[in-house]
Amino acid sequence: MTKKVLSNNLSGNGINTFPMELKILTSANIPTFFNNLLQSGKVVVAPVLKKNGKVYFESVESYDQVSTDYIQTVFSAKSVVFPKVEELFSYTKKEDGSVEITNDMSNVPETVIWGLRPCDSSAFNYLTEFFLKENPDSYYKTRKERTTLISVSCAKADDACFCTSVGLNPGSTEGCDILLTAMGDFFYTEVMTEKGKALIDAKLFTDTEEKSKEEFLAKINIKFSIDEVKERIQNAYESSEWKHESMGCLSCGACAFSCPTCTCFDIQDEGTTENGKRLRCWDACGFGQFTQHASGHNPKTNQTARRRQRLLHKFKYSVENLGIVSCVGCGRCIRICPAHLNIFENILNVTKA
Amino acid sequence: MARIGVFICHCGENISATVDVEKVAQEAAKLSGVAFAIDYKYMCSDPGQTQIIEAIKEHKLTGIVVGACSPRMHEATFRKAAEKGGINPYLCEMANLREQVSWVHARSEATTAKAIDIVRMMVQKVKQDSKLFPIKVPVIKTALVIGGGIAGIQAALDIANAGHKVIMVEKAPSIGGHMSQLSETFPTLDCSQCILTPRMVEVAQHPNITLHTFAEVESVSGYVGNFDVQVRLKAKSVDMKLCTGCGSCWQKCPNKKIPDEFNAGLSFRTAIYTPFPQAVPNKPVIDRANCSWFQKGKCGVCKKVCPVGAINYEMEDEIIDIKVGAIVTATGFDIKHTDFFPEYGYGEFKDVIDGLQFERLASASGPTNGEIRRPSDGKIPEKIVFVACAGSRDKAKGIEYCSKICCMYTAKHAMMYKHKNHDGEAYVFYMDVRSAGKNYDEFVRRAVEEDDVQYIRGRVSRIYEKNGKLIVKGVDTLMNAEPIEIEADMVVLATAVVANQDAESVAQKMHISYDKHHFFAEAHPKLRPVETNTAGIMLAGACQTAKDIPDAVSQASAAASKVMGLFSSDEMTREPVVAVVNRMMPPQFTTCTGCLLCMEVCPYHAIEREEILDRRTGEILKVAARVNAGLCQGCGTCVAFCRNKSIDLQGYTNQQMLSEVIALLNKPF
Amino acid sequence: MTKLQNKVAELFENGTINLMIGFKNALTNQPVPCFIENASQAELLIYTPECKNNLAVYLHKPEVKQSKKIGIFGNMATLRSIVQLTSENQFWDIEKTILTIDANDEVIVFANMEELETYVQENFPDISEEDLKLLAYLDSLTREERWNYWTEQFTACIKCYACRAVCPMCYCSQCTVECNQPQWVKVSSKTSGNMEWHTIRAMHLAGRCVNCGECGRTCPAGIPIHLLTARMNQDLFKEFGTRPGFSTKGEYALNTFKVDDKEGFIK
Amino acid sequence: MPDFEPKIVAFVCNWCTYAGADLAGTSRTKYAPNVRIVRFPCTGRIDFMLLMKAFENGADGVIISGCHPNDCHYTSGNFHARRRWITFRSLLDFIGFDIDRITFSWVSAAEGRKWAELVDEVTNTIRAKGPFTEISTLDSSKLKQLFYDEITK
User: Fold this and answer.
1) Would the ipTM clear 0.90, i.e. be above it?
2) Is D79 on the interface with C (CB under 8 A)?
3) The pLDDT of residue D149 is above 70
4) In terms of domains, do C202 and C170 share one?
5) Is C184 contained in some domain?
6) Residue A229 in 3-state DSSP?
7) Into how many domains does chain A fold?
8) How confident is the model over A242-261, as a mean pLDDT?
9) Alpha helix (H) residue ranges in B67-140
10) What is the pLDDT of residues A200-241, one digit of tens each?
């Protein structure tokens, strides 16, 4: 059988022709599998529980650091392929006046991201489309090529979760290379790509028939019908609700910086006329100066316009440009917002008939 | 693209002896933006400067760095040269290679390295330099003189005679000040009023002088050349235009028992009054606090008797706005009230009086027509004791400073008494006799030797009354500290000179500083004795410290000459090193957030609140700070203080200072 | 309806306000800032000790300013912020009605700034027990340990500037970090650049911060940045006796001086 | 390290300390060549960020010096500066910055000798302390994040 998995095909028509393989991995073997990954010299990024009680992605040295009991990490894993600061190149002026430019991606390590949620891995579909569809971005390309995603289905959810409302589900295989679903004492393993397969160690995995994941997945009730929203949002721009919905927004970047699909960046130079770097830094459409022109003119004069931009981009513009709803319902922005703004509440209100 | 020229001076051997100047020049040439670098024996010499000028033209330089002595030495020189070369003088910076390198270090790699660093630093700075132009501030050629005493009069006349307008403000109903109260003046014993009154009249009649008596300064704002002053004209209740000064009003006024300030309380005046016969203007005012019409609502005699109907009870205080270019403060002094000497019985015994009261007794225009009589019984005293330093030079009880004039006027008093009563006895208790000044000591000697005034070196411990006599107990420290006791008929205390009670509030109105005794502070105790540290405000007379008449007058003339200097050109030019609050195109207008916390920081009150208005609707779009270039002295405290860098200091911009630091440390790596 | 809700409804009806900033219960069942536009919505308003947000920050928002007559419900932090901001000449363009609920659960509507000032001064809060504990702990560390502690914290910073966004005192239209001529702060969120940002922030808030702790609470990376400004406030009070948000004429520690300010380190 | 020569930056005011340094020159008082003077109109002008920048760009020590209290050419610039330094210093100390690398001083236009002695003294202390790397190594060093409950345990 073939499945449409965009992210793993970095060139061509975005069709993944890899025939999905189904395996069983006993819970007992999980640490071995994990440590093998580490031993293979790969950098393994996994959720780690911090002293502040929150879970963050972090490169780990052994399986026991890894957190297994969490709903969602504070930040997404996008920084692995789209770092918060990407050094595009550095320059140095030589004695003779010539300028030397260095730009080396060769040392980007092979990385495995362990324990993403299905919403996160599906977010990589969008990232890939965004960075590679036209004028492919070599920095992203390199990093993505060297990254393998091992997702774990959600057995729990909180009231910020709404993946089911954006066409995903707690057991979705969108975008991942391997999806693990805990089923009692073993993990039902769906190998989605060559990359994934390359990690499968025959000694640890046994083949299996297709199983239903349903009963092992978190129940997340549908907040809204994505099709209705997609349709209603067409003329939501004029909605009078925007002002009220965004009143609480403080224009901090927290939502964008934690979002798995936010890709806005800003090119900055650091250094002197003698030497320095050109950097690509995360930016956020919520920032007051995001749209400010050199002249001082700013087409988006207030937070209402900025908040609208953010939401319309997720549910309208990205659909128009890339055919993807670029919100995966991970609920990070809801959990992190200092003003407790709620994206699906907003969407509901601005699209209500 | 910057084209910087670097000129390294050997200063003869002074720099080249310890710094490898050729190397410095070579290294400088390598710096980005440097189009030309050279070293030369004497940069400040004519050929040196010519080289700079030529180089600027030949290499189309956009800025120059001169590596030589301290900028405090030759910055001006080289900026002129830069100007001659055809670039803005402020595009010239100096690297201090002599005072701060060659003279303080031995010849070594490190020394040369330091020189190179400094040059690199200045090259970076000059790259960030922008053209600056001296600030021109128009000067309003009218002077305000506050105080109509002899100092104020002198200053006003000098300025007016130089052809400038003068506005004089005097709080009393007449000008003249303390000098008009004096009987005779030391050391010549000529009559005070005889020499003063002509000057008073001259002021009143001078075409260039506008006189406001019975008036006070309300507020002073603005800056040198452009002060805005509000003056309160207190209601005189008499129409000065109609009044002829005939005097029928005060002859008829029923309130006759008001202590007369002019006679230091030794006589009485009426409620409607002129302070003294020769007053200028010689027209009465109503002292409302003591007038039955204003207190009880009845009387109105003066109104009835006035032949010209000049009395106007409805008159109200009037505030006028005036614009002046300079201010001379001549608010004068006061004398310390002696109540704090209970043991001297001042106030308790009628015949213990102070110097000013004695002046009135001795004055021909005084309450006794110049006959020295006891206030108590009008008898002519046979024995008078004069107590010098009553309060002065007495840290414990009075004030620590010397009141300067007492030694002289005490001698004068004793002398005048002796002249009027040849067989009377005059005793002077003194600590030291301070009589420095032209003919001053001779004067005191005369008192002792010719008029045989008894000088006793010692303090008076106590004065009490005993059957009609005043018993003065003291010691004679020269007569092996013998206690002595004198039965006197009258005691005169040479009480200390102090600042006016309202001196502090005046200083605050003018934004000038003052010392702990509330005497106004000069800008520099030696080199700028008549200016205050607020540009455009000068000091004259005893408001600065105790002074005798010649000192007050000469300081007044000095202050006047400072004012004339200021008025000698239509605009004054100031260094363009001033702070600027950024302004930009709408919609931002400025990055200033209008927190205005910087206003407090500025020592010169140069930062103002500005409302940026919509040109059409006039509504306020933004509130921001603005620096008044006229007031700003360029310290830059506000610049470092401003949180979001909305203020910058021309000549020391954030960009420049930061580039200097980076250039200094962050070598090409 | 509660006293608060009634009061607010009344204020809408008699036209004193046309926007009310307060707290309501969110779907997620936690108190969240809410914006009431008419009397009928007043019943949404709640107040519990959990209502920690410093609402004063919203008084800078153009959308809020638009509705000129603004009612705002203030917890202590909010009230202090309003006092401090008044001393910084903000609010010249809005008409605000300030409400709070005092210890005996009475709703207070402040008639003027003076009343607010007195109320704040009478109920002036101390720095929280927890923060004191943290500060004491940090003081107990050696210089190097503190350095490691903070540099580790700063490494975690992602420069999302949420700390700045939630701070009522950070109202500059253009922050120092956005000023790029010269560039005072490295844009990249690397440790050194982050440290620059946090030192600047602490210095700019020193003597102005009202200890609401929003920055620390908000930080997605969980950095206790509020401790920096809390410490600054402690020190400034010790050194100069100044207290942010205490008076509308507020003496601000850094734009004034005393000739005899004590200091032991200048040679 | 024996052959370590510290880089010291001095931020001084134009009217007192800069003149004092000039005086040291005119009276030929010798001192260590490690110091680089940056001239400001007044200590009040010295932005605390410049200290940070100096250290970031590789200064090993910093000297801040201006007019003695009451001698400020602008009457109060140094008083404001003094408050700023009291504040900034306590902040730096709180974040664990090595404040002994910053020296504050009042040097008048007449104190050429004091200036020379100050520079020598500072140079020696910093030489003893060794090069300042705490900031320059920050970005390269692998720091894991620590969360603040940790400090309460």
Assistant:
1) no
2) yes
3) no
4) yes
5) yes
6) helix
7) 1
8) 90
9) 71-85, 109-128
10) 888 899 999 888 988 999 999 898 889 999 999 998 898 888
Residue A271 pLDDT: 80
Q: What is the pLDDT of residues A257-281, one digit of tens each?
A: 999 999 999 998 888 777 888 999 8
Partners of B111 in the β-ladder: none
pLDDT tens digits for C127-159? 888 899 999 999 999 999 999 999 888 888 888
d(CA C139, CA C144): 12
Which contacts (CB < 8 Å, 24+ apart) does range B49-53 have?
A: B49/B77, B49/B78, B49/B81, B49/B84, B51/B7, B52/B5, B52/B7, B52/B78, B52/B81, B52/B82, B52/B85, B53/B81, B53/B84, B53/B85
Which residues fall within 8 angstroms of residue A95, CB to CB, at 6 or more apart? B30, B668
Choosing from C103, C122, C141, the residue where a domain stops is: C122
Domain count within chain C: 2
CA distance D16 to A3: 79
Question: Is the CB of residue B140 less than 8 Å from the CB of residue B124?
Answer: no
How close, in Å, is residue C173 to chain B by CA atoms? 6
Is residue C246, in this structure, part of any structural domain at all? no
Residues B477/B450, Cβ–Cβ less than 8 Å: no
CATH classification for the domain delimited by B579-650, as one of 3.40.50.970, 3.30.70.20, 2.40.10.10, 3.30.56.10: 3.30.70.20
Helix (H, G, I), strand (E, B) or coil at C149: helix
Tokens at A129, concatenated: 């489309």
Is residue A14, in this structure, part of any structural domain at all? no
Give ∠ CA B438-B442-B443 in degrees, rounded to 5: 90
Whether residues C141 and C187 share a domain: the answer is yes
Q: Is residue C74 domain-resident?
A: yes
Q: How far is CA D95 from the centre of its chain?
A: 18
The model's pTM is: 0.79
pLDDT of residue A302: 87
Q: What is the pLDDT of residue D148?
A: 38
Cα separation of B138 and B113, whole Å?
48
- Asked if B67 is an interface residue toward chain D (Cβ–Cβ < 8 A), one would say no
Question: Are residues C7 and C118 both part of a single domain?
Answer: yes
Chains touching C, CB cut-off 8 Å, 3+ pairs = A, B, D
DSSP helix/strand/coil, B90: helix
Residues 6+ apart with CB under 8 A from B530: B522, B538, B539, B540, B555, B558, B559, B562
Q: Is residue C14 part of a domain?
A: yes
The pLDDT of C209-220, averaged and rounded, is 91
Taking 50 as the threshold, does the pLDDT of residue B669 lie above it? no
Grouping H, G, I as helix, E, B as strand and the rest as coil, residue B85 is helix
Segment B32-75, tens digit of pLDDT: 889 999 999 999 999 999 999 999 999 999 999 999 999 988 99
The fraction of chain B above a pLDDT of 90, given in percent, is 75
pLDDT bin (cut points 50, 70, 90) of residue D141 is low
**pLDDT value for D147:** 38
Reported in sequence order, the residue ranges of chain A that DSSP labels E, i.e. its strands, are 21-26, 43-49, 55-59, 85-93, 99-102, 111-116, 147-152, 178-183, 186-191, 205-207, 265-271, 275-282
pLDDT tens column, B283-315: 999 999 999 999 998 898 999 999 999 999 999
Q: Name the amino acid, one letter, at C116.
A: L
Against chain B, the chains showing at least 3 CB pairs within 8 Å are: A, C, D
CATH of range B4-132; options 3.90.660, 2.60.40, 3.90.1580, 3.40.50: 3.40.50
Comparing alpha-carbon positions, the chain B residue that sits nearest to C181 is B655
Does the beta-carbon distance from B586 to A92 stay under 8 Å?
no
Chain D residues interacting with chain A (CB cutoff of 8 angstroms):
144-150
Q: What is the CATH topology of the domain spanning D8-152?
A: Rossmann fold (3.40.50)
Domain topology for B142-234+317-332+500-567:
FAD/NAD(P)-binding domain (3.50.50)
Which residues, including other chains, have CB under 8 Å from residue B409's CB and lie 6 or more apart?
B186, B355, B359, B494
Q: Tell me which residue in A273, A275, A296 faces B587 most closely, judged by beta carbons.
A: A296
Which range of residues forms the domain containing residue A106? 21-351
